[in-house]
Amino acid sequence: MSLDPASPAPNAPKLPRIEAIDLARAIALIAMAIYHFTWDLEFFGYVEPGLTGHGGWKLFARCIASSFLFLVGVSLLLAHGRGIRWRGFLIRFAMVAGAALAISVVTYFAVPDAFIFFGILHEIAVASLLGLLFLRLPALLTLVVAAAVIAAPFYVRSALFDHPWLWWLGLSPEDPRSNDYVPIFPWFGAVLVGIAAAKLAAWAGLLERLARVKAPRLGLLQLAGRHSLAFYLIHQPVLIGCVWLFAQIFPAATASPEVQFRQSCEAQCSDFRDEEFCTRYCACMLDALEANGSANDVFSDSLTAAERAQLQGLANECTERIDKIMSEGG
Hints:
Elements: H1 19-43, H2 55-80, H3 86-110, H4 120-131, H5 139-155, H6 184-203, H7 206-211, H8 220-226, H9 228-249, H10 257-269, H11 275-292, H12 295-299, H13 305-327
Helix pairs in contact: 1-2, 1-8, 1-9, 2-4, 2-6, 3-4, 4-6, 5-6, 10-11, 11-13
């Protein structure tokens, strides 16, 4: 066994397929399907607005994305750590990039205001290319770069990156609107952590031991882990189609736009402030929107850039007003 954790020895025997990694990928896929199904229920009005975008569900989504990207890094090292197999890499890259492009095109026509221009598949495609640069570097150096990539959005955000063509980097002052936004910073960091972890595991002999472990035969679950791209592309159309069919027979009770706004506002606010503040703040926002006649535009999500700036001004005013009232014991 090599004492250098930088990379596996080029002439080392190739490991058999590690079934535990397939199983881990399958578990991540099931978790993703659970999240998307809940998102579909929210979209059709069966659960309160904003549920999947905040709190525990938001954390759940980030854990799922992180696990996928971590496994991308692990798989990249296992497949190409002993030398890049360009034919296999390019075929896989073309499949992922083509699927990402297809999702962008479909969502552009389906939901133009929140289409997916750089989602999880876009991230996987670009991260796979960038990850090749780290396959021969020391694991510790890779971890240092990973930490820098993850930390960058907290320290390097700038208006210089606010052009739409630079949104894929993730360094704009405000995240753009999208139904799936997984930019390079910070998410490429998870891929680098996966590469480094696989290097250290190979150096310690853990991969060889893991390759000898036989995962339980779980049929479709194991198949999904081996063909994760196909599962990813198929599962959401199937889930949303099922919820749509159910909605045609048993439509969800529709709350008024005002109630939906309050629920979504309070869910989003709860990520940052306590319940009392959020209740007062969202009531203030609703009153302000109705007073200036922009409530309907907000409810229909048809605001212009200037109107969004005005909305931010109202949010600042309401924040200051509620903070003052609460500080005075009102």
